[in-house]
Amino acid sequence: MNRRTLLAAAPMAAASGAGTAVAQGSAAPERPAGQAPGFYRYKVGDIEVTAIHDGFAPRALEGFIRNADLADVKRAMAEAFLPEAALPITFTTLVLRTGGRTVLIDAGNGDAGAPTTGSWMGNFRAAGFDPATVDTVIVSHFHGDHINGLRLKDGTAVFPKATITVPEPEWAFWMDDGRMAAAPDATKPAFAAPRRVFGPIAKDIVRFEPGREVVPGVTALPAYGHTPGHMAFALTSGGARFMAVSDITNHPALFVRNPDWSAVFDVDADTARQTRRRMLDMVAADRMQVAFYHAPFPATGHVAKEGNGFRFVPVQWTPAT
Amino acid sequence: MNRRTLLAAAPMAAASGAGTAVAQGSAAPERPAGQAPGFYRYKVGDIEVTAIHDGFAPRALEGFIRNADLADVKRAMAEAFLPEAALPITFTTLVLRTGGRTVLIDAGNGDAGAPTTGSWMGNFRAAGFDPATVDTVIVSHFHGDHINGLRLKDGTAVFPKATITVPEPEWAFWMDDGRMAAAPDATKPAFAAPRRVFGPIAKDIVRFEPGREVVPGVTALPAYGHTPGHMAFALTSGGARFMAVSDITNHPALFVRNPDWSAVFDVDADTARQTRRRMLDMVAADRMQVAFYHAPFPATGHVAKEGNGFRFVPVQWTPAT
Questions:
Q1: Per-residue confidence at B320, pLDDT binned at 50, 70, 90?
Q2: Which of A165, A311, B174, B259 is 20 to 30 A distant from A276 in Cα terms?
Q3: Rounded to a whole number, what is the distance in Å from the CA of A40 to chain B's nearest CA?
């Protein structure tokens, strides 16, 4: 009844004439700020996976792909309705809850990335996690956007209790002083990042070989080329199988669609291309759910063969976890 | 230093031998519960749009599409990596902040939907909104999943201050007593829902014709067929254009891909099919961002022609709003 009184002045029947159908405004509350927190939960058997978003970095298209014409790259961007100016490369890590433990796969940019990154910790906490209780961090490879989140620029260890585990061949490559000394100047920062992050705890680092079950249900698989020791991770729990493919591709709209294209980030382009085709073929044939570090958030879905390449089909968001 | 002491017992160098690389566990915190809240913000010029998720309802495939073989429907489901058993139909409404006003387009299932729906109010509040301050509700059509959120089953008006605006031809059809009396029993509940929701405030309802600017920047467009007065809404602000296409399709993986398929929910299948093709052609040609009520959350993206149908390309999630 109160409502009727309140709205007694509202026009009845069909609106007509000049102006808008509803003209009366009201004092509105402050504009609510911000996006929903960037985390997404799903299950792989009994393993609870939480994708944690760490923002994005815009990448100019010029010079990004070694072996594709810029016009073709722009066409692929347009087909995916991505921006014309620059590719927003996103970063999404995984948190696993398994066997009573909290396990990270990769750690994001920390405070060392582009200004549009660095939201990882806020999203991690919004998902109900505490960095002080992380048990294990599994590192896929030593690029800064995967490891800088382990240590702040001021030297603070972000996960003080965690055992840090890394691929043995990745360690062997990047921590080799002779190789760093021989590297061209442009490549030297790539050697500096792991030294900054891992140097203070070098003796405590656990190194794993390909084929190793790093924690129960999480097996490292060789996925070389992007970097010399780059690893993917097979998750198995009950009958469920899942693959965290790490950086076998950069943005799926470009490199799942065109698996022979080589981003400048690939250390060994030919090996990376072979790895990319081999793993995409496998997950497509098995219709296996996958996570890509650089797919749009929540960065998980499936892969299907299409033409000479593949297409990435994101999962349908669901509140059921 | 503390960290080194803590991890002194951790294995050094490459893990080898039996068991997993990292075997030691720890007392973990309680499993953090739940999914991130189901809201997503984006801009159309100066209009702030917030998509609000209202859960999903599983729909058996048998009998769902009038003019497609079940085998073809199952094939389309498999191509989209959707479940074999049933289609999860999702519900996503829009909240607009424009000109100091809070405007809803549709209101979700309220407390009258499937048990897996009803999360709308929680997501709406999580996005920083208050139902008491909603100024206007624009209704696309009178199906229960769009209007039941306006009034609880106990009769409570959910948006007590809001002006409720509805399509004039929709009102004329569903509120016609003679038409309800003549309807087959199976169709009568579709007439009951708008009477329950709108009956107590019938004289205060604002009815709009197609072509009408309902609130500044939001113009109703005829999109008949799904229901007799079903409307889409063009949003314009500055140079930005956007289309809320409401229910011109149900799930895009089925009906954007196969626009001639007719879901049983379409009141006039032929008209609905013509509307669907006309509007999909238009938004594809214009590369216009769209929102589908029944697309997977956040239910916004673009449409491109593909073969005899179209493909829906979801937006890339971004924290930037």
A1: confident
A2: A165
A3: 6
- Picking from A2, A5, A20, A321 by the largest number of B CB atoms within 10 A of its own CB, the best residue to mutate is A20
Residue of A nearest to B33 (CA): A128
Alpha-carbon gap: B112 to the closest alpha carbon of chain A (Å): 18
Q: Determine contact, residues B129/B158, Cβ cutoff 8 Å.
A: no
A32 contacts on B by Cβ (under 8 Å):
50, 127-129
Judged by CB atoms closer than 8 Å, whether chains meet at A317 and B304 is answered as: no
DSSP state letters, B106-175: ----TTSS-TTB--HHHHHHHTT--GGG--EEE-S---HHHHGGGB-TTS-BSSTTPEEEEEHHHHHHHT
In the block, residue with structure tokens 């061209």: A184
Contacts with B303 (C-beta within 8 Å, 6 or more apart), sequence order: B256, B280, B283, B284, B290, B310, B311, B312, B313
Asked whether the beta carbons of residue B206 and residue A10 sit closer than 8 angstroms, the reply is: yes
State pLDDT tens for residues B139-166.
999 999 999 999 999 999 999 999 999 9
Q: What is the pLDDT of residues B231-278, one digit of tens each?
A: 999 999 999 999 999 999 999 999 999 999 999 999 999 999 999 999
What ipTM is given for this predicted complex? Answer: 0.90
Q: Which band of pLDDT confidence, cut at 50, 70 and 90, is reported for residue A315?
A: very high
Full-model pTM: 0.91
Measured between alpha carbons, how far is A5 from B198 in angstroms, rounded to an integer?
Answer: 16
B296, closest residue in chain A (CA to CA): A316
Classify B231 as helix, strand or coil.
strand
Q: How far is B257 from chain A (nearest CA, A)?
A: 14
Q: Domains of chain A, with CATH numbers?
A: 36-312 (3.60.15.10)
Contacts of B82 in chain A (CB under 8 A): 316
Residue A320 pLDDT: 78
Distance from the Cα of A225 to chain B's closest Cα (Å) equals 21
CB within 8 Å of A71: residues ≥ 6 apart: none
